[in-house]
Design goal:
This protein has about 120 residues and is of the alpha+beta class. It is about 15% helix and about 45% strand. The strands form two sheets. The chain has a five-stranded antiparallel β-sheet with strand order 1-8-5-6-9. It has a four-stranded antiparallel β-sheet with strand order 3-2-4-7, with no helix packed on it. A hairpin with a 2-residue loop joins strand 2 and strand 3.
C-alpha cells in the first residue's frame, strides 16, 4: 500500500469513527424506551426489540419502520460486517441494503435527534 493510499484510508476510517461516535453512545437502552423495529419482507413483518448478531440467510427488504424510541444499525452481513444503515428516528425508512443479516440496537446519542440516514461501508 502506497503512502497516499494509506493516508486516504486513515482519513476515511477516522471520518466513519467520528460519525458513528456522534450518532451512538455505548451503553444499555433505558428501561423507559420501548421502541420496536419492523423489517418488512413481502407480507411478513419481522419485529426486533434487541440485537441479533446473525439472521442466517438474512431478510430481503427495502422498507423498515421504527416505532417509539431507540436507535438501530442494520448490516448487510452478520456480526456488523458489510454496508450499514443507521435508523435513529421513528417512521418509515427506504433502504438499499438488499438483504439484512444482522440488527443491533444501540443507545442513542444526546438529544436523540441525529440521523445519519445513509449507508456506510464498515471496514474492520
Amino acid at each position: 500500500m502506497r503512502f497516499s493510499q494509506f493516508v486516504r484510508f486513515f482519513v476515511f476510517t477516522s471520518l466513519i469513527t467520528n460519525i458513528v461516535s456522534d450518532v451512538f453512545e455505548a451503553g444499555l437502552i433505558s428501561s423507559e424506551c420501548s421502541g420496536m423495529l419492523h423489517i418488512y419482507e413481502d407480507s411478513e413483518d419481522h419485529q426486533f426489540r434487541t440485537s441479533v448478531e446473525s439472521l442466517g440467510a438474512g431478510i430481503r427488504t427495502r422498507r423498515v419502520v421504527m416505532e417509539g424510541c431507540g436507535c438501530y444499525i442494520l448490516y448487510q452481513g452478520p456480526r456488523r460486517m458489510g454496508k450499514a444503515y443507521f435508523v435513529t428516528r421513528p417512521g418509515q425508512h427506504v433502504i438499499s441494503l438488499g438483504r439484512i443479516r444482522s440488527v443491533y440496537r444501540q443507545k442513542c446519542g444526546p438529544g436523540n435527534q441525529k440521523n445519519a440516514g445513509g449507508i456506510y461501508w464498515i471496514v474492520g
